[in-house]
From TrEMBL:
This is Arylesterase. One of its GO terms (biological process) is lipid metabolic process. InterPro entries: Ester_Hydrolysis_Enzymes (IPR051532), Lipase_GDSL_AS (IPR008265), SGNH_hydro (IPR013830), SGNH_hydro_sf (IPR036514). GO terms for molecular function: phosphatidylcholine lysophospholipase activity. The lineage of its organism: Bacteria, Pseudomonadati, Campylobacterota, Epsilonproteobacteria, Campylobacterales. Residues 29-181 form the SGNH hydrolase-type esterase domain. It holds the Pfam family Lipase_GDSL_2. CDD domains: Lysophospholipase_L1_like.
Length: 197
């Protein structure tokens, strides 16, 4: 009985941790081509569509072709420049495609998460799927980090989009509609967490 009460208390405490974003807040969308919007028409990348959905400024800080090691180097300056309240972290696709160490990818993502949290921002971690020829399933490294740091987690968004041909511009990039689905799902997660009204 006491354990149940304690669990309810802890859960209630968690639910009140996040403050709703104001109209002056900034969301930083950080990643590679999936953030930059490769394959999208102008203004149809997911950060642009999320900004229209939320009414909150969303900075598109995606660079096509970037690997996580380079992203880690680039991140501190962006955090200092924009001072975001939320960072949507969607990185690792190029590490996977280039068959780089998955352990090193996990460590690079870990350091990014620590940097973001130390700067006072919430992290929405987006799991990148394995990008294999045999279907798209989230890499387990992302769930490990989401659990370890108690992050908002978009586990299946990319897997669902990239597993649906009509939502893709090529084998590994969404089209306008695919990026719209990403924006809607991220908006839903942020709303469910109490960050968006």
């Amino acid at each position: 009985m006491l354990l149940t009460i304690l669990m309810i208390f802890v859960k209630s405490g968690d639910d009140t941790d996040k403050q709703p974003l104001s109209k002056e807040s900034i969301i930083l969308a950080f990643g590679d081509s999936l953030t930059a919007g490769y394959g999208a028409s102008k203004g149809k990348d997911y950060p642009s569509q999320l900004q229209r959905l939320s009414g909150i400024k969303v900075i598109n800080a995606g660079i096509s072709g970037e690997v996580s090691a380079d992203g880690l180097k680039r991140l501190p300056e962006l955090l200092e420049q924009y001072k975001p309240q939320v960072v949507i972290l969607c990185h690792g696709g190029n590490d996977i495609l280039r068959k780089k160490s998955m352990h090193q990818l996990q460590e690079n993502l870990r350091q990014m998460i620590i940097l973001i949290q130390n700067n006072g921002a919430e992290v929405l971690l987006v799991a990148v799927p394995n990008l294999s020829l045999f279907g798209f399933s989230p890499l387990p490294q992302y769930e490990v980090l989401a659990d370890e740091y108690d992050l908002m987690f978009a586990e299946n968004v990319l897997s669902d989009v990239l597993g649906t041909n009509k939502l893709k511009s090529d084998r590994i990039h969404p089209n306008d509609q695919g990026y719209k689905v990403m924006a809607e799902r991220f908006h839903e997660i942020l709303s469910d967490e109490g960050l968006l009204n």
